[in-house]
# Entry
Amino acid sequence: MLMNDPIRDLLDLDTYPIDRLDEDAGQALVARCQSDLEQSGMFNLAGLLRPPAIRRAITEVMPLLRAESFTHKRLHNIYFKKDIPGLPPDHPALRQVETINHTICTDQLAGSVVREIYEWPAMGAFLAAVMGKPALYIMADPLAGANVMQYRAGEALNWHFDRSEFTTTLLLQASEQGGEFEYRTDLRTDADPNYDGVAKLLAGKDPQSRILRLAAGTLNVFRGKNTAHRVTPVVGDQDRIIAVLSYYERPGTAFSAEERIGFYGRAG
# Structure
């Protein structure tokens, strides 16, 4: 990677040699991230996004969040499904919770810090190496590939399991209080849904749940398919702002029009 590459103005590639996977330093980073994934189901690269890039990113997205974002507000259960076969509707594992956030989409982020990082080929190659995949690709979807989400005072992303194998986020701004990442590793398995354990978590009675407070500029990669997680309600005047970067094993992946409308309020 050339020293004058613009991506170096955005990312601390000296500390995190994402672009040098063929060198010992890059291989050591991959090995460290793989170890963290194995032990805790996630890895974090704190300070990956440089402070000037954080400031630029916030300057780019804040006017869009204020004027053009889609407010996603809904009641849901931890599964984001209307019902679960074999569970009665009043089972405590199906307890309703509320999620509220404000989202801007890929097509609104042209020329932005977020899009530059998302579409940088080395980022997908690094994530693929850590996850043990032959390759990972950005989405072909006009809305879903790179999103920025804002959580204002009192708002939260509530308990859920992810549909995808892993989720990649880049925190642009932390809230003053609240807005913390709470998770319960391996609450279920593919063979055991552990409905009673889910009910216990939702009741606030799971001693194995953990809270992680991230700093702005941190890349977080998280395996959330069987690990329940949420973002706690934001407290104070400073909003929580986070970019979500979606990569898939097959090129050309896109949501259906119905899914886009559900997540973003529009099909395109």
